[in-house]
């Protein structure tokens, strides 16, 4: 009823504009423009009012009411970026979602986690994104320790990945979140932690979220021991029965060999002979692990079936591991391209592909809308929608310099790619690819 009444008011305003007198054409055009603005303003008011009602419903005691409200909010953020609503109600929405994570059902926790993630992508990097990260991590970390529900844990992991990606930095924040994820499948048992064997769905979700954050980590900060443990664990996952686990592990391993700065460990050692010997042994160990992974990947790229079930997953596995095999043997990363609003969004490295697939999966039906309108994602992927070309002039990206290392097309990444390609060409004869580690002969 209210909506029809509003439509009648809009029609009445437009009908009241007279264009009979040609001498006042300019004036009529001006009045028409003003009324058009009024119509758009009323639509925005109605939309904000609708979201306000959904936000108010998050205070209700009935869980089903809060679930419906969260679904409404997520749908609204998928259909538009809701900047005005976020500007006014950002803190309230965040803390009500955190309250839902603390006290809600598994379904409500999944919805609230997703809403926080979309909220972070909407605000982009800055003070608000930082607040989301700082306020959410303690709640998410506690929730991950207190449940074994696969859907709930997967949603919490995705949320943690997104808010860290947007609001964190490549150092301590990223490492902290990656460690929280790692502990989901490798818990540090204590008085308040129960050791529960993670399901394949949880393992796959953890590996995917962990790898997503690894794309932005400061790899020079990571110790050789961490690389060893990661490669060894992920290699063990390639032998698991669940095909989605193997696929997630394969992508993560390809990423590690793409960005791992193993060459820094093979240089001169400032320290004791014993320390140098240990480092040398560790590098040889990584080379051995790489050889094992190569054999596993070769087998999985031609698997005839038997493990897993869905034929679609089998095809995905073969395609993925063929790409991983080509990368490990020859150093060539897979390239992808997709059309969004007439413009191509392209990737040419494992880092870019993992970022794109993760965000695309997270946003679901809202991915295209966000890629068309979300400045933060434009910055991340170095993507400019067609409509921005039509507006003329240069578009000034917000926080571009701060997040430049996350753009797959940034000069930093291009320089790194050029360096890696040079290394690949130099070491191709040794069949180690461009991520080769070397040990001086003695």
UniProtKB/TrEMBL annotation:
Domain annotation Interferon-related developmental regulator N-terminal: ranges: 25-329
Matching Pfam families: IFRD (PF05004), IFRD_C (PF04836)
InterPro entries: ARM-like (IPR011989), ARM-type_fold (IPR016024), IFRD (IPR039777), Interferon-rel_develop_reg_C (IPR006921), Interferon-rel_develop_reg_N (IPR007701)
Domain Interferon-related developmental regulator C-terminal: 374-428
Residue ranges the record marks as coiled coil: none
Domain of life: Eukaryota
Gene3D superfamilies: Leucine-rich Repeat Variant
Record-stated family: Belongs to the IFRD family.
PANTHER family xrefs: INTERFERON-RELATED DEVELOPMENTAL REGULATOR (PTHR12354), INTERFERON-RELATED DEVELOPMENTAL REGULATOR 1 (PTHR12354:SF1)
Protein name stated in the entry: Uncharacterized protein
Organism: Punica granatum (Pomegranate)
């Amino acid at each position: 009823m209210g909506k029809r009444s509003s439509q009648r008011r809009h029609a009445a305003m437009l009908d009241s504009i007279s264009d009979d007198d040609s001498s006042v054409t300019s004036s009529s055009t001006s009045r028409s423009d003003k009324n058009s603005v009024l119509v758009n303003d009323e639509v925005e008011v109605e939309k904000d009012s609708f979201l306000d009602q959904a936000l108010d419903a998050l205070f209700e005691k009935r869980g089903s009411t809060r679930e419906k409200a969260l679904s409404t909010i997520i749908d609204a953020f998928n259909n538009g970026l809701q900047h005005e609503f976020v500007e006014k109600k950002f803190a309230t929405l965040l803390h009500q979602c955190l309250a839902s994570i603390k006290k809600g059902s598994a379904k409500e926790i999944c919805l609230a986690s997703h809403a926080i993630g979309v909220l972070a992508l909407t605000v982009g990097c800055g003070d608000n994104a930082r607040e989301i990260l700082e306020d959410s991590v303690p709640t998410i970390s506690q929730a991950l320790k207190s449940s074994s529900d696969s859907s709930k844990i997967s949603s919490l992991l995705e949320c943690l990945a997104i808010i860290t990606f947007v609001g964190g930095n490549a150092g301590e924040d990223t490492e902290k979140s990656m460690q929280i994820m790692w502990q989901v499948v490798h818990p540090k048992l204590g008085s308040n932690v129960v050791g529960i064997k993670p399901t394949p769905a949880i393992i796959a979700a953890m590996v995917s979220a962990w790898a997503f954050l690894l794309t932005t980590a400061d790899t020079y900060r990571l110790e050789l021991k961490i690389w060893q443990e990661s490669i060894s664990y992920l290699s063990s996952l390639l032998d698991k029965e669940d095909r989605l686990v193997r696929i997630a592990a394969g992508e993560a391993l390809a990423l590690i060999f793409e960005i791992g700065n193993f060459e820094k460990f093979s240089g001169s050692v400032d320290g004791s002979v014993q320390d140098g010997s240990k480092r040398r042994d560790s590098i040889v160990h990584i080379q051995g692990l790489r050889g094992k992974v190569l054999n596993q990947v070769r087998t999985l790229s031609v698997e005839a079936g038997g493990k897993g079930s869905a034929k679609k997953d089998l095809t995905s596995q073969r395609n993925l591991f063929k790409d991983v095999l080509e990368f490990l043997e020859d150093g060539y990363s897979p390239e992808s391209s997709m059309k969004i609003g007439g413009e191509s969004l392209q990737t040419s490295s494992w880092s870019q592909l993992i970022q794109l697939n993760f965000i695309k999966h997270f946003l679901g039906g809202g991915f295209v809308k966000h890629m068309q309108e979300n400045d933060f994602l434009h910055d991340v992927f170095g993507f400019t929608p067609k409509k921005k070309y039509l507006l003329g002039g240069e578009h000034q990206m917000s926080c571009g310099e701060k997040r430049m290392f996350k753009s797959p097309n940034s000069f930093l990444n291009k320089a790194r790619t050029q360096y890696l390609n040079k290394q690949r060409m130099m070491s191709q004869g040794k069949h180690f690819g461009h991520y080769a580690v070397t040990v001086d002969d003695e």
